[in-house]
Design a protein that fits this description.
By secondary structure, the protein is mainly beta. It has 2 helices and 18 strands. It starts with 13 loop residues before the first helix and ends with a strand.
Length: 367
């Protein structure tokens, strides 16, 4: 008996497959455009710029000895240790930082006041005629230093060069999505470069870049670049006292301590690392921040100490929050890890309509 030949499945038409693929790619593109880039609250062009903060001491960390990504050990959870205020009664008992020693320390120059002064009542040396008294030379009055600005820090600690990789999840228009991000941080004690890249399958990438100098005030950006389908830049011109924008928006005043939308988070972590006791729960810090089109004042409040379970492992963190300042503003939450020199290990941006993007550390590598 002959066996009837097996029937072959009909081939799917090519046109429906092409149409379906195009719709999927279009949906991903719409998601990328709708999702906010991490670490980018909506600026307030009308916000009044505060006076910049003043710093006293800068500590620069060397590049940490890190293993490659597959062999990187998880970050062990440990409580966030607080330094008590450095009053005379507790100065001797303040705990020491466990971070590696700094390779460079920068402090503002001080006036030498150790020269001996003439005791009061002692006559000054006379000229050739010994019987004629000579009036004592008046001592110039020294102007006391100005008081520190509110929220000013006495120290900063700049982290060493490192590469941080993040896993990202989010929701936009009731659709969930995922992406990856990478932060490259490089510094040589004099200058720095930071680059944040967010990428997703079929969607391409978007990046923010900040470059500048390391000064006694911490990070001093000279150029900020925001790049997706087009490039927009902000140029910090300290010599002219202005911040200019490639988007042809009006110039903004440059202030000492000004940051951009990427450097602000590294500067914020440096403030926390340099003087942890200055930022207890409930404290706030404001930073003058420039985006690619305008400047704004970003105020963060120290909210709580939390232990997070991240893709890289557990980590004790300090959480800071930026609350919405006006309609259609965003809530920004960011977690810094004391065990990692207060580098950001998680950030979450939430829109008022519930859309969000959540970024969590998954790997630590050498740059």
């Amino acid at each position: 008996m002959n066996t009837p030949p097996a029937r072959q499945a009909p081939a799917l038409p090519a046109r429906p497959l092409i149409t379906l693929t195009s719709l999927v790619v279009l949906a991903h593109v719409l998601l990328l455009q709708a999702a906010p880039l991490a670490w980018g609250p909506v600026p307030d062009p009308q916000a009044t710029a505060p006076r910049p903060f003043i710093t006293r001491t800068l500590e620069i960390k060397p590049e940490p000895a890190l293993a490659s990504a597959p062999a990187a050990p998880p970050v062990r959870a440990q409580p966030v240790r607080r330094r008590p205020p450095l009053s005379p009664s507790n100065r001797a008992t303040a705990p020491e930082l466990t971070a590696p020693p700094a390779i460079e320390s920068i402090a503002p120059a001080t006036t030498d006041s150790t020269a001996p002064a003439d005791p009061p009542g002692q006559p000054a040396e006379t000229a050739a005629t010994p019987t004629e008294p000579v009036a004592p030379t008046p001592t110039p009055t020294q102007t006391p230093p100005p008081p520190p600005l509110p929220g000013a820090s006495t120290a900063l600690t700049i982290p060493g060069s490192v590469r941080l990789k993040y896993a990202m999840t989010g929701r936009a228009k009731n659709l969930d999505y995922s992406a990856f991000a990478q932060l490259d941080w490089l510094q040589d004690g004099q200058t720095y470069d930071a680059k944040m890249v967010v990428s997703a399958l079929f969607l391409g990438s978007r990046s923010m870049t900040s470059s500048g100098r390391i000064t006694a005030d911490g990070l001093a950006p000279t150029r900020f670049l925001d790049k997706s389908r087009s490039e927009r830049a902000a140029h910090f011109q300290a010599d002219k006292g202005t911040i200019s924008f490639s988007a042809n928006t009006p110039d903004a005043p440059w202030l000492r301590g000004a940051q951009d939308r990427l450097s602000v988070f590294l500067q914020l972590g440096s403030l926390l690392a340099g003087a942890p006791a200055s930022y207890p729960v409930g404290a706030s810090v404001s930073l003058y921040t420039a985006g690619p089109r305008e400047v704004d004042t970003w105020t963060f409040t120290v909210e709580s100490e939390e232990t997070l379970k991240l893709p890289v492992g557990e980590a004790a963190t300090l959480k800071l929050t930026r609350k919405p300042q006006r309609d259609h503003d965003q809530t920004v939450e960011i977690w810094f890890a004391p065990s990692m020199d207060y580098l950001p290990v998680r950030s979450r941006i939430t829109q008022q309509n519930g859309d969000f993007i959540d970024q969590q550390l998954r790997a630590v590598e050498k740059p």
